[in-house]
Amino acid sequence: MQNQTDNPMHSKAWAMLQASRCGARTRSGRPCQSPAMPNGRCRMHGGPSPGAPKGNRNAWKHGARSASTMGAAAWIKAMARLVDGEEA
Predict the structure, then answer these.
(1) Nearest Cα to Cα of residue 23 among 10, 12, 32
(2) Which residues contact 15 (CB under 8 A, 6 or more apart)?
(3) At 74, is the pLDDT very low, low, confident or very high (cuts 50, 70, 90)?
(4) Domain locations in the chain?
(5) Cα separation of 17 and 46, whole Å?
(6) pLDDT at 61
(7) Can you give the pTM of this predicted structure?
(8) I want to staple 34 with a disulfide (CB 3.0 to 4.6 A). Which of 7, 13, 29, 42 is the partner?
(9) 32, 21 in Cβ contact below 8 A?
(10) 3-state secondary structure string across 31-85
(11) Alpha carbon of 66 to those of 52, 59, 60, 82: distances in Å?
């Protein structure tokens, strides 16, 4: 029979048992016992991604409300007011 200390799977399992736990409250009211990720929560209660990155270009839909478009619209409105003021 092989000694347990020679088994490479034993060290991985031991490391998993020693990992910090998530601690989020489950629906039963007890703390979650899943291993925590670096952010302190498990994959089900926070996972590796806390949300979209800042300036996420993947979430860009059309640009109708972008800062440059809104600035251009404000400039056009200001020019229209000037033209209307000159005609009156």
Answers:
(1) 32
(2) none
(3) very high
(4) 7-47
(5) 20
(6) 75
(7) 0.38
(8) 42
(9) yes
(10) ECCCECCCCCCCCCCCCCCCCCCCCCHHHCCCCCCCHHHHHHHHHHHHHHHHHHH
(11) 18, 12, 9, 25
